[in-house]
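re: ur msg from earlier - yeah i can do the zinc ion complex, just paste it... oh wait u already did. ok heres what im feeding in:
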Amino acid sequence: MDASGLHIDGNGVAGTLEEIFTTEITVAERICQSCGSRAPIGAHRAYHGAGLVLRCPACGDLGARVGALGDHHHVLELRGTWVLARSP
Ligand SMILES: [Zn+2]
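and the outut:
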């Protein structure tokens, strides 16, 4: 079976990704990959240093890392399962 017909390039899902990444993030929830707890992003512990780190409020494991590269660019690493609601 030829797998080339089973996918499209990322441009084909741009609209869906734009809807997801423009939601109100503080009311989004994250399910921790380590302890399984589900908590709003606003309830996570935030640490500032060389970048920004969000940690699970239950076990302290990493939820997200954000680094600023300058010129309005950032790098983002997400951990666990993020539950995002589309903005109305
Ligand atoms: Zn946890």
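cool cool. The radius of gyration is 16 Å. ping me if u need the other ligands too
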